[in-house]
Write a structure and sequence with these properties.
CATH topology of one domain: Leucine-rich repeat, LRR (right-handed beta-alpha superhelix)
Strand content: 15-25%
Helix content: 25-40%
Keywords: Leucine-rich repeat, Nucleotide-binding, Plant defense, Repeat
Protein name: AAA+ ATPase domain-containing protein
Radius of gyration: 32 Å
Number of strands: 27
CATH architecture of one domain: Alpha-Beta Horseshoe
Pfam family, one: Rx_N
Family: Belongs to the disease resistance NB-LRR family.
GO molecular function: ADP binding
CATH class of one domain: Alpha Beta
């Protein structure tokens, strides 16, 4: 983890920094030398992290902490040099003077300061590694930590290698449905193909338990040859093949395997199994490659043979080139959780002679639910508490669960560690970052990926944008069952959550490694804990109203949740000058940010959620700002120079109440600009955006006359047609009293049908146009009672295939226009029941069934059919005319 701190600095520094500071005397050469030193430090930390992951060493931890401190110091130096370069490069005459060495005095002083700080950091690096050599940390720690790691892994592997006992009835609760489904698939007499049945779920979800139960029920009774093989992270081809021979073939010819090649063993297994109806269980498969290396041993002779595998990675379950059946293991519900907990916490020997069991059972319900349906967590907790029948201990556990105290019952931390160790360095930090969000928090993927990128977690990958790589990380974490998909569209994942047990585990690791410090009180902010490294990221929950920058200087990231309870008059920005990430979540009411925020010149990401904010003019001094994200907030006054910051890439604002828009200029580096509710945006802006080289995604919501009329226009796709994450955060944010609404912004509504919510929320709406693929779904439904006052509806250039108009919807509709909705083949029958419908216009829809058009014409309605889109007229949103 410490290795990634250096990697992130190198990622953010990049070659462009040195190019920009080429006019700064000897500073560029010194910075380059410092970057080279960072790369050597990165190699050291990669090795140190690998040895520390499973075993702790206090001296090594201290050394790693110091190296990481140096890395962050280097980042501050590089940022400072970068800022100075941009400042001095603006006036050409000053640039010429600097290049000749005739420096302006203040500039000289700042240059000297940067050079001196680089020399100090370089000297510090040398001192650290001299101490490293002095104490011989490498030789004294490596063997013990490696041995500890091996012992732990071998112990866990041994537990997995315990084969099912055919006389033993595996104790299961809550898995009856999964067991019956898997059993039915194994015994399906009509399916003769070799079939791979996968059980997928997070660590501790009960995948192996289900497999063992089914294996015990059907293996010997219905198959000629059976084998249970533990794959695990220590997979080797020879080891797996040897286990298959031992399990499926018995002891025959087992000794001669030592003289055979892997391919010879595969042929031997294949030859043996081709005459058998066999069942092979591959337990705990981690990687696609593991399957690829053994699949040739399994013949498909169309006799109903089966392979069952358990995995935490859904990519593995989708990979086999054979008939596949995938069973996702669900978590236990509340009743099942309580039943499992009671069975483990109250064995028969504790039930006799106690008169306080009712109190324990009441506490047990709360404890069982803390496992959040994860069977392993519930079993471990119940087993531990069955030996600790003290009411005070149970109450303490209700308040705060200590998983480390329960290691003898089954080390849940070690189980979850395996999933963590299998991640790349980048994925590790991305996962730990998600655990900083509050419990049960639905994390928007757009927000998450912007934070990851701002932190420097996302590497540059040839042919992919940073955003695309970040979305790939989200998908991989979901595939590995480390995060839960909360909301998903047809194109991408929208929001995610972390299982509470995984979050608790992740927060604990993040604290120990100094990745972040989470605080719910003033004391936690001001206290240093002996078992935790110094953290440069702080997460504040609830009403923490301290001078956090003073208590924890040189902070890199500050995330504040439940900001509505923040005592804004007490909270201080003092000491936060080196902050890179600042995020306020859950604010309510109005807050004027202090002018001191302009001193945070290293800030890359500023996020505001909820409430109304007044930004001081000094925010224009944030010359490193990449992202300003207020998509769920109101900005009362937007400084006119904010959008001219040269580093700014993304601006997302829900609503701007006051804005001298005519005086504002947009710099050309923007990649996305989303201002949902704003004063009338000049038409010249749209032309200026179209001429930008980067072709940014953009969206403006223009409101008129107290927001009774709203036009949302934009182009929310990149140059390759990939949708940006710009989207309407919540349709309830639309003003309830809207009379006219026009939405012409691709992907803005995604594939979630907007009509049910729009119809019930915008009850005063008279005119509605939805077009230009703003909605990407296939079905559109207008429920009964929706749009009670709608007069004019326009649907233009949508991919809807079915339109359902329920009886009682749009009772006052008079004019309906359909244009270029080419996938819509038939009109809804409900149109015949609209008594006030006067006119139907159908344009550029040659394949539409016109039977209903004919019937409407016969009923006295005006029906206009046109073949060319040129005949289409958009809804006009007048600037001064009241509806």
């Amino acid at each position: 983890m410490a290795e990634h701190a250096v990697a992130a600095v190198l990622q953010r520094a990049g070659a462009t920094v040195i190019q920009e500071v080429a006019s700064l005397g000897q500073v560029p050469a010194k910075v380059e030398a410092l970057k080279s030193e960072l790369k050597r430090m990165q190699c050291f930390l990669r090795d140190a992290d690998a040895r520390m992951e499973r075993g702790e060493n206090e001296m090594l931890s201290q050394l790693v902490s110091e190296v990481r401190d140096v890395a962050y110091s280097v980042e501050i130096i590089i940022d400072t040099a970068n800022i100075l370069a941009r400042e001095t490069s603006r006036p050409p005459s000053l640039l010429g003077a600097i290049s000749k060495g005739a420096c302006y005095p203040v500039h000289c002083k700042r240059l000297y300061s940067i050079g001196k700080r680089i020399d100090q950091v370089t000297a510090r690096v040398g001192a650290i590694f001299r101490e490293f050599a002095k104490y011989s940390i490498s030789s004294s720690t490596g063997l013990n930590e490696t041995r500890h790691s091996m012992d732990e892994n071998e112990s866990m592997r041994a537990r997995r290698l315990t084969l099912p006992d055919f006389g033993d009835d595996v104790d299961v609760i809550g898995f009856d449905s999964e067991i019956n489904q898997v059993k039915d698939e194994l015994l399906d007499s009509e399916n003769k193909d070799l079939t791979v049945i996968s059980l997928v779920g997070p660590g501790g979800a009960g995948k192996s338990t289900i497999a063992r139960k089914v294996y015990n029920l059907v293996a010997k009774k219905h198959f000629n040859s059976c084998a249970w093989i533990c794959i695990s992270q220590q997979f080797t081809v020879y080891g797996a093949l040897k286990d298959i021979v031992k399990g499926a073939m018995g002891s025959q010819d087992f000794e001669e395997l030592g003289t055979m090649s892997e391919m010879e063993i595969i042929k031997k297994i294949h030859s043996f199994l081709k005459d058998k109806r066999y069942l092979v269980v591959l337990d705990d498969v981690w990687r696609i490659e593991d399957w690829d290396m053994v699949q040739a041993a399994f013949p498909d002779v169309k006799n109903g043979s089966r392979i069952a595998l358990t995995t935490r990675n859904s990519a593995v379950s989708n990979h086999p080139n054979a008939r596949k059946i995938i069973q996702e293991v669900k978590l236990l519900n509340n009743d099942e959780s309580i039943e499992l907990f009671n069975r483990k916490a109250f064995p028969s020997y504790v039930l006799h002679g106690r008169d306080d069991l009712d109190s324990f059972r009441e506490l047990g319900k709360a404890l069982a639910l803390k496992g959040n349906g994860l069977p392993l967590a519930i079993v471990v907790m119940g087993g531990f508490l069955s030996k600790n029948l003290r009411i005070t201990e149970w109450r303490r556990m209700v308040a705060s669960i200590n998983w480390d105290a329960m290691k003898n019952e089954g080390d849940i931390r070690a189980i979850l560690d395996l999933s963590y160790y299998d991640l790349s360095s980048n994925l590790k930090v991305c996962f730990l970052y998600i655990t900083s969000f509050p419990e049960d928090y639905a994390v928007p993927v757009g927000l998450l990926t912007k934070l990851w990128i701002s932190e420097g977690f996302i590497p540059n990958v040839r042919g992919r944008s940073l955003e695309e790589t970040a979305l790939g990380y989200v998908e991989e974490l979901a595939q590995r069952c480390l995060i839960l998909i909360e909301k998903k569209s047809s194109r991408c994942i929208r929001t995610v959550k972390v299982h509470d047990v995984l979050r608790d585990w992740g927060i604990g690791r993040a604290r120990r490694e100094g990745f972040l410090k989470d605080c719910s009180s003033r004391d936690e902010v001001e206290t240093s804990y002996s078992n935790e490294m110094r953290a440069y990221r702080v997460v504040l929950y609830d009403s923490v109203c301290v001078k956090v920058g003073v208590a924890m200087p040189n902070l890199h990231t500050l995330l504040i949740f439940n900001a509505a309870r923040l005592e804004r008059n007490v909270f201080s920005f003092r000491g936060l000058n080196y902050l890179r990430i600042l995020y306020f979540d859950g604010m309510r009411g109005r807050w004027q940010l202090p002018a001191e925020i302009g001193q945070m010149v290293h800030l890359r990401y500023l996020g505001l959620k909820g409430g109304t904010y007044v930004l001081p003019a000094s925010v224009s001094n944030l010359t490193n700002l990449h992202t300003f994200d207020a998509r769920d907030a109101v900005v009362e006054a937007l400084p006119i120079d904010l959008l001219s910051i040269s580093t700014l890439k993304h601006v997302h604002i829900y609503k701007v109440e006051s804005w001298s828009v005519w005086k504002t200029t947009i710099q050309s580096n923007l990649k996305s600009l989303f201002i949902f509710l704003a004063a009338n945006t000049p038409k010249q802006w749209e032309g200026a955006i179209d001429r930008m080289e980067e072709n940014p995604s953009w969206c403006f919501g223009k409101h008129y006359r107290s927001v009774k009329q709203l036009e949302i226009v934009g182009a929310c796709e990149d140059e390759f047609g990939v949708p940006n994450d710009l989207h309407l955060p919540d349709l309830h944010l639309l003003p309830h009293n809207l009379r006219r609404l026009k939405i012409s912004c691709p992907n803005l509504l995604n594939d979630e049908d907007p009509m049910p919510l729009l119809g019930s929320w915008l009850t005063f709406l008279n005119v509605l146009e939805i077009g230009v693929k703003s909605y990407t779904g296939a079905t559109m439904t207008c429920p009964s009672g929706g749009f009670p006052d709608l007069h004019n509806l326009v649907l233009h250039d949508l991919d809807i295939e079915e339109w359902i108009l329920e009886d009682g919807a749009m009772p006052r509709l008079r004019i309906l226009t359909l244009c270029k909705c080419t996938k819509l083949k038939t009109l809804p029958q409900g149109l015949q029941h609209l008594k006030e419908l006067k006119k139907l216009k159908v344009i550029a829809m040659p394949e539409l069934d016109q039977v209903l058009c004919y019937l409407l014409h016969k009923a006295g309605r005006e029906v206009v059919l046109r073949s060319s889109e040129e005949d289409f007229e958009h809804v006009q949103i007048p600037e001064r005319t009241e509806i």
